[in-house]
């Protein structure tokens, strides 16, 4: 059932004198929601129930800010002094603060990037020192000097 339909159904039940707890149970919402709807109903009538209020905090970046960030992202991080052409969450957070004066935690930057149509990508390059033959052979094992009476092994390759 759509939220607006639930509110209007609840309004009909409240108008018939049903208590809020029973209305909440029948409509399938929390009693606090019915209490809020009852207050809205008193203040604005049924028209007050037709729109839900905004959920959560208002955005700290307006449409103009978002556009400035989008343009800066398209230019890339190199004009800002970074040595590579990769955007990271930390870099984007710094960009937002420089462009708009708003601090974003790097862990939350991805939400804004997704709204702007950007997605997370993994770099496609290979390490320059990559040794394909050694990778095919697998790790080489060597015996370490015995310290506790049992042989132990370690890889000669990193990682």
Structure write-up:
- With 159 residues, this protein is mostly helical.
- Among the domains are: 3-49; 63-115, no CATH class.
- It has 7 helices and 2 strands.
- It has helices spanning 3-15, 20-27, 31-44, 63-75, 89-100, 106-115, 132-137, and strands at 141-143, 153-155.
- It has a two-stranded antiparallel ribbon with strand order 1-2.
- The longest helix has 14 residues, at 31-44.
Sequence-ordered SSE layout with sheet pairings:
Layout: H1 3-15, H2 20-27, H3 31-44, H4 63-75, H5 89-100, H6 106-115, H7 132-137, E1 141-143, E2 153-155
Antiparallel strand pairs: 1-2
Largest sheet: 2 strands, antiparallel
The SSE string, one letter per element, is: HHHHHHHEE
Low-confidence stretches are 150-159
Report the C-alpha radius of gyration, rounded.
30 Å
Question: Helical element count?
Answer: 7
Q: How many angstroms separate the termini?
A: 54 Å
From the spread of the alpha carbons, the general shape counts as elongated
Question: What percentage of the residues does DSSP assign to strands (E)?
Answer: under 5%
Q: Tally of extended strands?
A: 2
Proportion of residues in helical segments: 40-55%
- Category from helices, strands and their pairing: mainly alpha
